[in-house]
Amino acid sequence: MIKTVKLEVAILPVSAMTVAKNSEATAEVNVMAESDSIIIPPCDLWSDEPPLESDRHRDQIELLLACLKWWWRERSDFYATGNLTIYFSPEHITTRDFRGPDFFVVLGTENRPRKSWVVWAEQGKYPNVIIELLSNSTAKVDKGLKKILYQDTFRTPEYFWFHPDTLDFQGFRLMGGQYQPLDPNTQGWLWSQQLELFLGVHNSQLRFFSGDQQLVPTPDERAQAAQQQAQAERQQRELAEKRVEELLARLKELGDESDA
């Protein structure tokens, strides 16, 4: 008779190191693979997320992704996505009791398309940065239950939330096993050590800013700025050419007057 063993991913105490947590998550997969009598949980799982709250929420996620991917366009060691399920325990395959973050970034991993983020298939890696977009129906969970989950289980170094309607914006950094609020700069922006970028509200949207406090543009904004710069340079060139023509015409007039 083949004996079936139910697998549960252990959740370490808050004081445990992140490395130990990741090692244990991957170790369980290795143990499962040692015997044909043990069921190996699937790794190729589809995301199972509900529809976004509004167009503003969808547009905000797409904006963050477009800006970060453009800023890191020469990098291949990160994964950024939005509204995607994170499976961190095989139990969630059947219970379906957890929804993924609205936006998250994992560093030190392969940049490739995924159906979902399956922790035991990703060397035990959890997100380095998570951003939740609040709504009236989700704010309590995002500020409470999910914050505790990201702090105690995920051990995610940085957690931010932003409300697209009220512009409620706050960030936290994991210090001593607990999330501590981040202090804003004079513009109200918060510094992300993980991304090495500021996050701040600009035109009622959450945006990234570089270390020298320049707005990280979208590809469209970058193209528009390049077009405007090219147009300005063309106008300056045309103005310079016109001045040269005027000077030549004036010199010619002076020469004609001298001959007379």
Automatic annotation (TrEMBL):
Domain of life according to the entry: Bacteria
Keyword list, A-Z: Coiled coil
CDD domains assigned: DUF820-like
InterPro entries given in the database record: Nuclease_put_TT1808, Restrct_endonuc-II-like, Uma2
Domain Putative restriction endonuclease: 50-196
Chain coiled-coil ranges: 222-257
Protein name: Putative restriction endonuclease domain-containing protein
Organism of provenance: Moorena producens 3L
